[in-house]
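Structure in, sequence out. Go:
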C-alpha cells in the first residue's frame, strides 16, 4: 500500500469517545505530514450510552459498538490491538504488552477509568468489574447462556452505571434472578431527589432490592460483607471507585490521588507539553464527573490542540458546561431524564428520546469511507535510485541498536559483527534448504508486518521438514522523515526477530532501501537432517488435511476497501500470526506422505501442484473447507483479492458440477493466503493420530478431501463436491 510522506508521529492511546470523534474528523480532513496511530486492545469499543440497552436486550452488539479497526482505516491511522504497560515521557516511548515499543512526537490518552478493586479486600479475586467492557461482556454472555438458572446477583455501586446495570439485569434475567443494588451512600449520589425517586420506583417495580448506606467491607467466595453482616451471592458486579491504570502515575507525570493525569484547560499534561488527555482519564483543573458527555464535548478541542501541538500552534481552552442532560436507562423501553434546574421526567417517551440521541451518535461511525490520501508533505522532493535509495547509516544503526537476535555457535559473523557478509559453519552431515519471499505490506503497521513477513518466509522451510537456521532480510521503507524511518525500521525488525528467534533462526544480515511503500522479505536457510517433505509422495486413497482457515486474501481486500468488521480482522490476524513450526514439530514421528504450504496460489493452486508432482488426482469437499468468519459474506458482496483472475485459472483443471459454480466457497478455495497453513496428504491409518498431534500443537487441522487414482496419461484433476 502506497504511503504518504510523514514527519510527525501522533499516537492516540485508548478508543474512548474523544478519540473516536478525533479519528472521525481526521478521516474527513487528512493532515499532510502527520502519521496517526491508535493503540487499543479491542477492535470494538462500546458506546456507554447504549450499553444498558444492549444488556436489557434492546440492541444487538454491533449496534452499540464502534469498530475501531474500520475507523482507524478511514483515518489512514495505524491500529495496534495492544495494551500499554509503561509510558516514558522523557524518551517519548510506550512499552506495549506484546514486547513492542512505540515512540511518539505527540501523545493523547483516552483510556477511561476502571473500578477500584483494591480498596476492598477480596474484590479483585471475587468480583467482576464492569470495565474493561470486553471482559464484562464475556461474563454477561455466560449469564445469558442459562437464563432459567436461579441466581443471586449483587451490583456494588449505585451511581448511574450501577443503577442502569441493575435495571438491565432484572429485566433480562427475569424472576429466576435475585438482584441487589448496594451503595455506600444514597442511590444515584449527586442527582436531584426527583430523579432518584423515579429511578427507585422503577428498580423496585422490577424486583431489585436496594441497599443504601452499606459500604462493602469484604468480598469472599459466595459472600458479600457489609454493615457487619454477610449476604450470600453467586455473582458480584463491581461498579464503584474509579481509578486510572497504574502505569499512568508510574510515568512520573503529575496525577491526582486516583491516578488520573492532571491536565490544564487545553487538555495538556501539566508535566509534558507533548502529552494530552481527555475523557475519564483526565483530571481537569476544576473536577468533572466521570461522564461520557464531557468526553464527547472535549473531542473538538482535543483535535484542534493535537494539531496545534504537531505544528507548534496555539492551543485553545476547553470550557466544560455547567450542567448536562442525563438520560438513565431504567430497562428497555423506559428511561429517566434529569437536567437541573428543570424537574426530572420519566417514561417510554424519554426512552425514545434517548434512543434517537444514541442512534444519531452511532450513525456518525457508519458507512466509513476508504482512507483519503493526505496531500504530500513535500511534493517537490526528488528521491534517488540505485544505491542512493539505501536507508541512511544513522537510521540503520539506530534500528539495529538493541536488537537481540538468537545466538548460534555455528555463526561466526552476523548482524553483531557488521561485516559485509555472514559467515556460517555448515556441517557436512546436513543438507541446506533455502527459500526466499518478499512482498509489500498489507497493513501499515511495522511490528505486525515484520512478524507476518518472517512467519510467511519461514513457512516454506517448515513445509520441507527443515529446521530454520539463519535469515537475511530485504526491507523497503517509505520515504518518511529519518526519525520516523528509524522508528519503523526498529519496529519492523523487532517484530521479525521475535518470530525468527522463536523458530531458533538467527538474523545474520540484510539490505534496506527507501521506496513508495513498506515491503519486507527474508531469505531463510534451513538444516535438513531427516527425510524431506515434498509435494511428491501422495498416494491414492489418502486424506487431505489443512491446518489453517481460508479467506485471508479476501479479508485483507475487505480491509483495504474498509468494508471489513473488526472481530473478523482479529481472527484473520490471529491466523496469520500462527506459525507452522509447531505443526511441523508435532509430526516428527508422523510424517505426511506429501506436504506444501498454502500461500499465494490459493488452496486449489497448491493442491494441483501436489497432485501433479505425486501423479494423483483429488476430491475436495467444499462444505468441509475451514473459512474465516465473515469471508463468505464478503464474497457475496463482490469482495475478492486482485489475484483472483490469475488464481482462478486452476479451475480449468477442476471438475465442478454446474450447481456448485456460484458457491462462495469456490472463491475462498482460490484465494491467495499470506502466512497460510500446511496442506498434508495423510495415510488413513495415521489420520486420527495426525489430527490429535496437530490439534495438540494448536493447529486447527481439518479434513477437506482425499487423493484418488489419476486416469492413465491424463492430467491431474480436482473434483469438487459438497
Amino acid at each position: 500500500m502506497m504511503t504518504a510522506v510523514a514527519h510527525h508521529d501522533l499516537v492516540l492511546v485508548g478508543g474512548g469517545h474523544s478519540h473516536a470523534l478525533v479519528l472521525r474528523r481526521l478521516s474527513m480532513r487528512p493532515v499532510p505530514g502527520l502519521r496517526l496511530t491508535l493503540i487499543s486492545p479491542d477492535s470494538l469499543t462500546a458506546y456507554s450510552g447504549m450499553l444498558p440497552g444492549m444488556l436489557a436486550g434492546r440492541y444487538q452488539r454491533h449496534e452499540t459498538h464502534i469498530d475501531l479497526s474500520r475507523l482507524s482505516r478511514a483515518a489512514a491511522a495505524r491500529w495496534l490491538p495492544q495494551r500499554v504497560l509503561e509510558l516514558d515521557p522523557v524518551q517519548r516511548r510506550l512499552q506495549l504488552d506484546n514486547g513492542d515499543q512505540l515512540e511518539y512526537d505527540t501523545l493523547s490518552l483516552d483510556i477511561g477509568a476502571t473500578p477500584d478493586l483494591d480498596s476492598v479486600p477480596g474484590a479483585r479475586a471475587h468480583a467482576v468489574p464492569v470495565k474493561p467492557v470486553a471482559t464484562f461482556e464475556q461474563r454477561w454472555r455466560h449469564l445469558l447462556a442459562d437464563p432459567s438458572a436461579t441466581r443471586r446477583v449483587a451490583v456494588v455501586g449505585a451511581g448511574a452505571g450501577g443503577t442502569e446495570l441493575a435495571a438491565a439485569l432484572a429485566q433480562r434475567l427475569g424472576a429466576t434472578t435475585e438482584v441487589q443494588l448496594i451503595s455506600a451512600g444514597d442511590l444515584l449520589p449527586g442527582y436531584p431527589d426527583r430523579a432518584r425517586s423515579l429511578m427507585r420506583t422503577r428498580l423496585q417495580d422490577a424486583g431489585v432490592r436496594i441497599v443504601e448506606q452499606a459500604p462493602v467491607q469484604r468480598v469472599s467466595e459466595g459472600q458479600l460483607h457489609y454493615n457487619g453482616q454477610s449476604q450470600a451471592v453467586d455473582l458480584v458486579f463491581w461498579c464503584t471507585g474509579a481509578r486510572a491504570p497504574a502505569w499512568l502515575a508510574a510515568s512520573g507525570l503529575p496525577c491526582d490521588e486516583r491516578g488520573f493525569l492532571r491536565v490544564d484547560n487545553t487538555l495538556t499534561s501539566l508535566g509534558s507539553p507533548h502529552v494530552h488527555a481527555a475523557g475519564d482519564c483526565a483530571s481537569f483543573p476544576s473536577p468533572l464527573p466521570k461522564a461520557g458527555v464531557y468526553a464527547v464535548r472535549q473531542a473538538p478541542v482535543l483535535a484542534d490542540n493535537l494539531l496545534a501541538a504537531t505544528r507548534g500552534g496555539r492551543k485553545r481552552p476547553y470550557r466544560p458546561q455547567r450542567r448536562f442532560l442525563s438520560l438513565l436507562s431504567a430497562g428497555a423501553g423506559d428511561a429517566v431524564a434529569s437536567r437541573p434546574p428543570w424537574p426530572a421526567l420519566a417514561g417510554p417517551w424519554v426512552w425514545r428520546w434517548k434512543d434517537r440521541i444514541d442512534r444519531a451518535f452511532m450513525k456518525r461511525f457508519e458507512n466509513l469511507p476508504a482512507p483519503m490520501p493526505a496531500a504530500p508533505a513535500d511534493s517537490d522532493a526528488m528521491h534517488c535510485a540505485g544505491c542512493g535509495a539505501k536507508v541512511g547509516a544513522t537510521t540503520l544503526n539506530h534500528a539495529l541498536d538493541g536488537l537481540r537476535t538468537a545466538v548460534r555457535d555455528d555463526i561466526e559473523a552476523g548482524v553483531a559483527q557488521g561485516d559485509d557478509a555472514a559467515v556460517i559453519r555448515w556441517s557436512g552431515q546436513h543438507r541446506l534448504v533455502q527459500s526466499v519471499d518478499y512482498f509489500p505490506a498489507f497493513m501499515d503497521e511495522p511490528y505486525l508486518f515484520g512478524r507476518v513477513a518472517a512467519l510467511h518466509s519461514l513457512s516454506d522451510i517448515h513445509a520441507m521438514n527443515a529446521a530454520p537456521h539463519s535469515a537475511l532480510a530485504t526491507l523497503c521503507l517509505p520515504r518518511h522523515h529519518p526519525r520516523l524511518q528509524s522508528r519503523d525500521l526498529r519496529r519492523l525488525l523487532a517484530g521479525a526477530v521475535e518470530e525468527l528467534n522463536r523458530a531458533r533462526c538467527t538474523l545474520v544480515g540484510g539490505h534496506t532501501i527507501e521506496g513508495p511503500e513498506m515491503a519486507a522479505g527474508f531469505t531463510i536457510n534451513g538444516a535438513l537432517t531427516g527425510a524431506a517433505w515434498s509435494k511428491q509422495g501422495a498416494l491414492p486413497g489418502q486424506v487431505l488435511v489443512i491446518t489453517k482457515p481460508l479467506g485471508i486474501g479476501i479479508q485483507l481486500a475487505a480491509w483495504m476497501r474498509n468494508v471489513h468488521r473488526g472481530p473478523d480482522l482479529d481472527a484473520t490476524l490471529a491466523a496469520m500470526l500462527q506459525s507452522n513450526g509447531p505443526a511441523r514439530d508435532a509430526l516428527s514421528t508422523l510424517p505426511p506422505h506429501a506436504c506444501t504450504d498454502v500461500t499465494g496460489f490459493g488452496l486449489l493452486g497448491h493442491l494441483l501442484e501436489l497432485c501433479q508432482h505425486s501423479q494423483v488426482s483429488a476430491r475436495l469437499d467444499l462444505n468441509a473447507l475451514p473459512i474465516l468468519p465473515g469471508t463468505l459474506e464478503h464474497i457475496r458482496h463482490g469482495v475478492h483479492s486482485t489475484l483472483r483472475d490469475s488464481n482462478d485459472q486452476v479451475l480449468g483443471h477442476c471438475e465442478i458440477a454446474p450447481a456448485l459454480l456460484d458457491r462462495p466457497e469456490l472463491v475462498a478455495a482460490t484465494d491467495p493466503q499470506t502466512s497460510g497453513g500446511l496442506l498434508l496428504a495423510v495415510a488413513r491409518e495415521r489420520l486420527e493420530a495426525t489430527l490429535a498431534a496437530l490439534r495438540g500443537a494448536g493447529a486447527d487441522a481439518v479434513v477437506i478431501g482425499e487423493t484418488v487414482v489419476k486416469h492413465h496419461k491424463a492430467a491431474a484433476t480436482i473434483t469438487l463436491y459438497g
